[in-house]
Amino acid sequence: MKITEDILRISGMSEQQLRQELALWLYAKGKLSLGRAAKFSGLNKPEFMHLMAANNIDLNYSVEDLEDDMKTIEKLGL
User: Fold this and answer.
1) Containing structural domain, residue 37
2) pLDDT in tens, the chain (78 residues)
3) DSSP for 34-77, written as a single string
4) Do residues 48 and 41 lie in contact, with contact meaning Cβ atoms separated by under 8 Å?
5) Could you give the number of structural domains in the chain?
6) CB 72, CB 66: distance < 8 Å
């Protein structure tokens, strides 16, 4: 998706900055997964997670997610 020059001018941000802000907002609202938000922002997952931390955005990881991960680990024998 191309962000127009008008939107960039109004926002006062570069395209990269605007993409990162939008990705953070969409992730925080539960609209994008971590991977999709990172990709949209132009960052890799660790970089995006650092950006999340810098903006006080928590990782969307529930108790159910942990339980599912633990079951997967057990099935794999790890």
Assistant:
1) 5-76
2) 688 899 899 999 999 999 999 999 999 999 999 999 999 999 999 999 999 999 999 998 888 888 988 999 999 988
3) HHHHHHHHT--HHHHHHHHHHTT------HHHHHHHHHHHHHHT
4) yes
5) 1
6) no
